[in-house]
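Intended use. Records like the one below are meant for learning the mapping from a protein sequence to its folded structure. Do not use them to infer anything beyond what is encoded.
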Amino acid sequence: HVQLVESGGGSVQAGGSLRLSCAASGYSYSTYCMAWIRQAPGRGLECVSGISWSGDSTNYANSVKGRFTVSRDNAKKTVNLQMNSLKPEDTAVYYCVSGTNDWGQGTQVTVS
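Structure written out for the chain above:
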C-alpha cells in the first residue's frame, strides 16, 4: 500500500491561488497513476484531476480545466495540484488518491 499525506489547503479569497501537495510513502509509488478527488459540503465525490505514472498524461474535470494544473515528481514521491483563479464552488475537502485506491486524509480548501 501507499501512504499519502496532503498539505497546502487553507482559506483564500475568490480569484486567489493555492498549491496542494501530496507526499507518498511506500513502494511502487512511481508505477501508479494518481488523482485528486474533492468533496464539497453536501455533495458527492468529484474527480478533479488525474496524472499518469510518468506524468506525461493528465486530465481535468471541466469545472477546473484551465485553472488547475497537476504535476508529480517521482523522485520526491510528491504530487501537486496548483489551483489558480479559485472560485467559491471550489470549496471542498481535497483528497490525494493513488492507483492502488489508497487515500490521504484530505485537506480543506475554502474559497470565499
